[in-house]
Amino acid sequence: MASLPPSTEHSNFAPGYEDVVVELSTLISYGPPPFIYVHDAQTSKVTANVLGDTLSSLPSEPGPSSRSPTTRICVGHVDAIRSYSPRLLFESLIHSLVGHEPGWDDGCPNWSGDREGDFRWNENVDAFLQGLRAAHAHLCAQDTSSKFMDGNKNAKGKTKGDLFDGVRLVLVVERAERLKDTMPELLVPLARLQELARLDLCVIFVSEVGWDSVKPPLGAAPDPYFIDVPPLSKENTVNIIASRYPGLSAEDPEVYHPALQMLYSHFISMVCDVCHMHTHDPHELQYIAAARWPGFIKPLRDEHHARQKEIEAETDGEGEFEDIEPPSEDTRLRLTRLFGASLSQALETLYPRLTNASDWAKVNQPPADLLSRSRAEAKIGTVEPDSMLGTGSLLGHLPRVSKFILIASFLASTNPAKSDLRMFGRGLDDKKRKRRRAQATVKPKGGVTKVPQRLLGPSPFPLDRLIAILGALLEEHDVESRLPAPELSIAGESTDMEISRVSIYAAIQELTSSRLMHRTTKPEVIDGPPMFKCAISYDLALVLSKEVKVSLSDLLWDQM
Length: 560
Description:
Strand content: 5-15%
Subcellular location: Nucleus
Pfam families: ORC5_C, ORC5_lid
Number of strands: 9
Radius of gyration: 32 Å
Strand order of the largest sheet: 2-3-4-5-1-6
Protein name: Origin recognition complex subunit 5 C-terminus-domain-containing protein
GO molecular function, one term: DNA replication origin binding
Helix content: 40-55%
Keywords: DNA replication, Nucleus
C-alpha cells in the first residue's frame, strides 16, 4: 500500500487545515480531477497560502509502486484581483509555471519558449492554450536534460529509479469569484481547460463564495470537485498567528526578541478573545496585534533599559550587556489587565481602516513607568469623547467644512424629511423657525406607538437634501468666518456659491471613502440622486457640533 504524500508531514504549520492538506495532496499526487473548487467563506487568503505551500512541496511524488517513474508537479498561481484582464491572467499563469520574471534591463519581455522574438501567449484563449503546450514541452525538456544523476546508472546511462514520467500542471486561481464580474467569458474555458489543452492538467479555484454564485448559466461549465474548508477555531487561529513570530528577523529585533515569544503567544490569545467574535481572519487579527504589541511590551523594555543604565553607571560603562528576560507571571497578568481595554479601541479603529497601525500605535503609546503606578493611575484604552478629536485621530484632521457635512448627514439621517422646512426654514421676519416640541400623548387602546428614529438607526437620504441642510448650517453658523465679498449683496448668495463648489462634493467623497458616511446606491446607477447614510454616533456628532459652535439639540426633531 502506498504511503501518504510527504507534504502531510508539514500540515502542523497550518493548524485546522490538516484534512484539507491530506485530501488535496492525495488528489494531486495520484490523479487529480480536471477541476477543483475550494470554498472558504471566511479566510480564503489563508487557505490560498496553505494550498500554495502544499503544492510547492509536491515537485515529484511517488507513484503507486516504488519502482515506477515519478511525475513532476508544476504549479502556476494567479490572483484574480491583481490580474483583472485576460492578458494579465494568461501571462501570469504561464510565467509562474515556467518561473519567468520579466526584467527592466531586457525590456520586460514575455516568455516566448523556443520561439524567436517576443511571442505573446496572452492574445486570446487559443494563444493561451498554445502557451500551455509550449510550457509543458519546455518543462518536459528540462526533465529530460536534468534527470536524477546521483542514483545507480545502467549501461545506457539512465537511472534505475526516480525518473520523471511526465509533467503535471496545476493552475491555482485565487479569489475566483472576481472572474464573474471582470472576465465572465473565461469561466467556461478555465473549467474545461484540460479538455481544451489535452494535457495532464488540473485547475483549482479558491473562492469566498459558493460555486452556485460563480458558475456560468445553462450548465456550460462542468461541476467541479468540491472542497469545503471549515471555519478556523479560536485555538487554531492563535496557533497560526503565534507561529508567525518573526524573532530576530524583524526590523526591530528587540520588539520581537526570542525571550518574549511565550509572552507573544499569551498576547495573541488575549487579542483573539476580544476580536475573534468580529473577525476570524488571521491577517486582520495579526494586523491589530502588530499595532498593540510594541506598546504592550514597552514597560518591559523601559525596565530593561533602566537596569542597563544602572549597570553602566556602577561599572563605568564596562559592564556586560544583559539580555531581555521573560516576564514573570504576575507581570504578564498585570499587562493583560492594563491593555485589555485598548484592544477593543484598536478593533474599532483598525478593522475598518479608519487609520493605519503605525499611526495608531504612536497615538496610543502607554505612559512611562506604567508598571510602577497604582491601579487607579494606570489606565490604558479609556477614551473620553473630547479625545476622539485629538492629535493623530482621523477626525482631528478634518477641515471645518467636512465637520459641517458630517453634522448635516447626521441630521439628515435622524430627522424626517418633512421636518426640514420647520427646522431650517426662515420666515418673513428673517428668523429661523423653532422646532415644535413633541408633547406626550396618551396611546389609544390597541394602538401602535411610533418608534423614534434614534432607535431605528440612521436612514438614507438623497444628496440634494444633504446639500440643502449643509447650506442652512453654513448660512447660520459660518457666514462671519468668511472673507468679505461686497459683490455678493443678496442674502444667502455667498452660501449658495459655497455649497456649489467642487470641493464640497470632493469632501463628501472623501468622507465616504473614510467610512464616516455610507453610500447606499451603486456608483454606476444614474437614475435619481445618489443616496447616503450617516455613519457617526450621536456622541461624535455632539463633539463635532461643539467644535463648530452648533447647537445640535435644537436641530433634532426627536430629543436623543
